[in-house]
Amino acid sequence: MSDDTRMKPTQADAEAAVRTLIEWAGDDPAREGLLETPKRVAKAYRELFAGYEADPREYLERTFEEVGGYDELVILKDIRVVSFCEHHMLPFLGKAHVGYLPRNRVVGISKLARVVNGFARRLQIQEKLTAEIAEAIQDILDPKGVGVVLVSEHSCMTMRGVNTPGSRLTTSHLLGEVRDDPRTRQEFFELVRNSD
Predict the structure, then answer these.
(1) Using CA atoms, how far apart are residues 177 and 13, in angstroms rounded to an integer?
(2) pTM for the whole thing?
(3) Quick check: is 124 catalytic?
(4) First to last CA, the chain
(5) pLDDT digits (tens, 9 = 90+) for 3-36
(6) pLDDT tens-digit series, residues 60-73
(7) Rounded to whole angstroms, what are the CA distances from 71 to 56, 97, 109?
């Protein structure tokens, strides 16, 4: 079957899969403490993977053109990121720092956080997430440039495998003047690095 014609699994299918995993792990899904677990896990996954239900790019479509001549960097820092590694389906948690150099319009700051969260609520790798956020802002807002930095801790490394708690992965994706103009690039990274 092609991806377009396959049937989406039902809530009952998801709950059955969780029961199977509980049994596979060595426990009894009929045990009192686990009876409602399949339903809870399916509900949690629906929330954690809500990024598949909407196009995060749509959050950027309402903009403001009355900017009073403002043409400097706009940066929103410390946006909480909760996403899942596509290799192990384990969470990676961190912060995103998003900036853009407006051309002639800006977007409400909450929309930047919504774009980050919309793309984050999918299975993926951090590098892809960083690029998707930057490219969406570039494509929709058409600014002079965009910069995105994402710093997170991956539980696929900290809870299992190499077991290195506290290690963090940093990725960045720069476009336009934020990438090409050395002064703008430096200013972006300095503003991201410095906290109030």
Answers:
(1) 48
(2) 0.88
(3) no
(4) 53
(5) 567 888 999 999 999 999 999 999 999 999 999 9
(6) 988 888 878 888 99
(7) 25, 19, 16
**What H or E segment, with its residue span, contains residue 139?**
helix 126-141
Whether the Cβ atoms of residue 57 and residue 115 lie closer than 8 Å to each other: yes
* Identified catalytic residue from 132, 154, 173, 177: 154
Quote the CA–CA distance of 9 and 126 in Å, as a whole number: 27
173 is catalytic: no
Catalytic residue selected from 23, 36, 61, 86: 86
Residue of 58, 135, 153, 156 marked catalytic: 156
Please confirm, yes or no, whether 97 is among the known catalytic residues. Answer: no
Catalytic residue among 58, 88, 135, 153: 88
- CB distance 107 to 64 below 8 Å: yes
- Residue 14, classed as helix, strand or coil, is helix
> Is position 15 annotated as part of the catalytic site?
no
**Annotation says 156 is catalytic:** yes
The region that residue 54 occupies, defined by phi over 0 for left and psi between -120 and 50 for alpha, beta otherwise, is: beta
How does DSSP classify residue 34? G
- CA–CA dist 148, 138 (Å, integer): 11
